Amino acid sequence: xxxxxxxxYPLQESLMDTALSLLETxxxxxxxxxxxxxxxxxxxxxxxxxDRILFGSGAxxxxxxxxxxxxxTLDVSEDAMRRAFTKNPARVVPGLLxxx
Length: 100
Fold this sequence. Notes:
Elements: E1 2-3, H1 13-22, E2 30-32, H2 39-48, E3 53-54, H3 64-72, H4 78-92
Parallel strand pairs: 1-2, 2-3
């Protein structure tokens, strides 16, 4: 299951915190990054649960580049970013990446 907007739509930080806590007890739960204005919550998610965060842009309401830049400017490892952009979505949706 994927909770969009870190489980906090419409922009409720308390719900985002609750969703992050749920990752501890629900192995098949993932959060996407669409509409997450609080950089601290987003950074915490990528630091504490790098395998459970999926990139989400919020398009078409928000240009995808905005969502990309939000992640690229966080103080997290390149590996955590790579997981959010490609590795994690490919695990959740088999066949998402082309065979190389």
